[in-house]
Design a protein that fits this description.
Keywords: Membrane, Transmembrane, Transmembrane helix. The chain is mainly α. The chain is built from 2 helices and no strands.
């Protein structure tokens, strides 16, 4: 009985995890060269 419940729970969590993993988009918030924030750069581009 506990094994069946565990399989049901994992069967529901795994698809949700995979959907979230594939839907996640990484934004570049840090400069790869200096490590500074790129937030000010994005604000300047929007104007």
């Amino acid at each position: 009985m506990p094994i069946g419940i565990s399989l049901i729970v994992l069967g529901g969590l795994l698809p949700g995890f995979l959907v979230g993993l594939f839907a996640f988009r990484v934004k570049s918030r840090w400069c790869p060269r200096c490590g500074g924030s790129t937030d000010a750069l994005h604000r300047a581009v929007r104007r």
